[in-house]
Every structure is written in C-alpha cells, then in structure tokens.
Design goal:
four-stranded antiparallel beta sheet; seven-stranded mixed beta sheet; elongated; about 120 residues; about 0% helix; mainly beta
C-alpha cells in the first residue's frame, strides 16, 4: 500500500510561481531518489529535476535557475518550487520515488497521479 499523492498544480500567468508537493505514504521501509517528470501532449516524458536521499540535485537544462527541488525526509515529501514560469513549462507533472517497501529487498519506482500545470496569460 504505497502511494504518491501530488498537489499544487494549476493555472498561472507567465512569470508567476507554483510549488508542487508529492507525499509518499504506506508501508515504506525507505526512500532513495525522488524526482519530478513532465509530459506535454505529443511529447515524451522528460526528467525535470531529481534529488537523492542526501540532498544532491540534478536539473534539466531548461529549468536551471528557475526551479528548485527539495525534500523533507521526515514527511516523505518532495517539492518542486517553480519560478519565472514560461508557456513552455505547461505540462502534466509527475512525481517519482524509488521506494523499498516494508518486507522487500529491492527498490521499486512509484509514480504520482500527475498534476496539470498551465502557464498562460
């Protein structure tokens, strides 16, 4: 019973900001890496940002300097702060986490349900 629940998406004007949240819950033993992906209509899913359990981050070139990924390990939650949003950022955003379930010996990828981010004037 592991779930990732996303929140924070919506409609915002160009130049505006949004913060996405993704909370993992269930019978979790530990969480390794977490990240955010996005997929726009007609395009392939792409990695936006990722973060290790120790706080090391990676970003897509298109969002460097504008987006910040962070996590709260005590809450099993990953965040994506999005500033200076552009129309090109419009997409469905999915969170991802590599989770070892209680009683499991391996890590498995889990995905959130997706949240729509629309940047439009």
């Amino acid at each position: 019973q592991v779930q990732l629940v996303e929140s924070g998406g919506g409609l915002v004007q160009p130049g505006g900001s949004l913060r996405l949240s993704c909370a993992a819950s269930g019978s979790i033993f530990s969480i390794n890496g977490m990240g955010w992906y996005r997929q726009a209509p007609g395009k392939q899913r792409e990695l936006v940002a990722s973060i290790t359990n120790s706080g090391r981050t990676n970003y897509a070139d298109s969002v460097v300097g504008r987006f910040t990924i962070s996590r709260d390990n005590a809450k099993n939650t990953v965040y994506l702060q999005m500033n200076s949003l552009k129309s090109e950022d419009t997409s469905v955003y999915y969170c991802n986490a590599r989770i070892r379930r209680s009683g499991s010996y391996v890590y498995t990828d889990y995905w959130g349900q997706g949240t729509q981010v629309t940047v439009s004037a």
